[in-house]
Amino acid sequence: MKEKDLISDYKVQKYILYAEKNDGSYGTVEGGSYIIENDLDDFWHKKNHLEKSLRERLLKNEITPIYYFMVLEEMTVSELASRAGIAKCRVKQHLKPGKFATARVGDLQKYAGAFNVPVANFFQMVLTSNDQNSKYHFYHQEEAAKDRYSIAQTATANAVVILTKVEEKA
Amino acid sequence: MSGTQLPFEHKMSAHCETGTLSSQLAFHGMELSEALIFGIGCGIFFGYFNNKRFAFPTFIVRSKPGQIRKNLTKRLGIKFETETFKTPQQAQEKLDALLAKGIPPATQVDFFFMDYLPQYLRVHINVHFINVVGKSEGGDYLISDCYYPKIVELAKESLQKGRFAGGSMAPEGFLFYPTFIPKEFDFEKAVRKGIKKACFNMLKIPIPFLGIKGMRKFANHITEWTKLAIDAEDLSHQVSKINILLEDQGTGGAGFRFMYATFLKQAAEILKQPELVDFSKRMMDNGDKWREISLMAARMGRNRDLSVEKLREVGALIHERANVEERFFKELAKVVK
């Protein structure tokens, strides 16, 4: 790759790339990410679409909250089992709507740690006026900016209780 | 509590592991370029994985994380103190003790918890390396991440979660810093060994999904992706990921091929073998072709142009790369003998 062929006015994400410099030597130049510059909207579109279809299935009780987050985070059962510290066979049980009710609160806390969400979010969907799940971490800044309300969740000393605050934006 | 920041020179670099090593060595008084670290540590590689451990088939373009550091120890005699921990508490105490002593260690984290990066970059990958260079007044940590333009603050909870994320290749609070740097080096021997080992890794590992064999497996298997994807959007996401894995995951472009070309150019001077300049140019051209593949994948993903014929076309281009790289590494192995 030659330095002159590199489009360096990528604004969203800057990277260090290796290329043939204008003086013929090889070394680092500042470049950007093609895919982030051009396809980020498509990425959000796909992610939000996936989230919505999973949400519909979750609301119909076809899948469990654990499955919902697992698919969104692109994890496999064994990866989730290892991250949460729960036996694989138990995780498989918790993916079945009929068996999810057998999960212990302790298990749910472990899952919550692995997905980095509050335990309460396994039992509720905090939707915004744009019909987005604001507590799904791919609820991105552009969408948040369009909302009239801001929704903040703060952890408390009690691991299973979370404060959810809805405030109208100034 | 007052904040402290060690006089650590922050430098952006293409790849996290080599970049972290380079700045760690610079802090201890040794200047070694990222490309040279990558070459001596024989980071260049290829592997295609299609097993239950992954939600979808994936590939790698570099050697196992941590291997570059181990190779540096082996070939240059640089010694690193490394440690993993049983509990987050122990890990944090050790980190604080090192910072108090004036040593900024590098640590392994899950990329997902690096809050200063934009959301779309933050995926669960357990093999990101960062330097911890101090503490802020509020007790949070100051991080020098080579993907970020400046030294940045990271909440201590996030750092702890990142250091103790479970899953495959779990960090377990892993940290390292150099303890001994020899005064003199035999760069010639180290570079020669690095190249030889890279040739071995690419050509001779007797496992059907690693090295050039992995590339061919990838090329053959890519048409099966249509059956494995849940729907068209999932397939589009997976095909776009070819671009991300080759260009965006700290590779310096074209799946480390440009970085390796830069290394070979430096190697030509160190080994006093001008013929390596030609190899370096060939690797640069090879990288350009890889970049064409990744751009094609990005466009296919965006336009939902995902027919089996189109994927076969990508497969054919990857086959071509496999043939070129096979010839390249066979000839390179003869030159550095």
Number of domains of chain A: 2
Give helix % range of chain A: 25-40%
Query: What's the CATH C level of the largest domain in chain A?
Result: Mainly Alpha
Q: What structural class do helix, strand and pairing data of chain B support?
A: alpha+beta
Radius of gyration of chain B: 21 Å
Largest interface: A-B, 45 and 55 residues
Q: How far apart lie the N and C ends of chain A?
A: 48 Å
- CATH homologous superfamily of the largest domain in chain A - what is it? lambda repressor-like DNA-binding domains
- Oligomeric assembly: heterodimer
CATH C-level of the largest domain in chain B: Alpha Beta
End-to-end gap of chain B: 58 Å
Largest sheet of chain B: 7 strands, antiparallel
Features:
heterodimer, A: 170 residues, alpha+beta, 434 Repressor (Amino-terminal Domain), two-stranded antiparallel ribbon, 6 helices, B: 337 residues, Cathepsin B, Chain A, 2 domains, seven-stranded antiparallel sheet, two-stranded antiparallel sheet, 12 helices, 9 strands, 50% helix, globular
Write the layout of secondary structure elements.
The complex is a heterodimer of chains A (170) and B (337).
Chain A: E1 14-20, E2 26-32, H1 34-59, H2 65-72, H3 77-84, H4 88-94, H5 105-115, H6 141-146, E3 149-155, E4 162-168
Helix pairs in contact in A: 3-4
Chain B: E1 4-5, H1 16-27, H2 34-40, E2 44-49, E3 58-62, H3 67-76, E4 79-83, H4 88-101, E5 106-109, E6 128-135, E7 141-144, E8 152-154, H5 156-163, E9 175-180, H6 187-203, H7 212-221, H8 225-228, H9 232-248, H10 257-270, H11 275-303, H12 308-335
Antiparallel strand pairs in B: 1-6, 2-3, 4-9, 5-6, 5-9, 6-7, 7-8
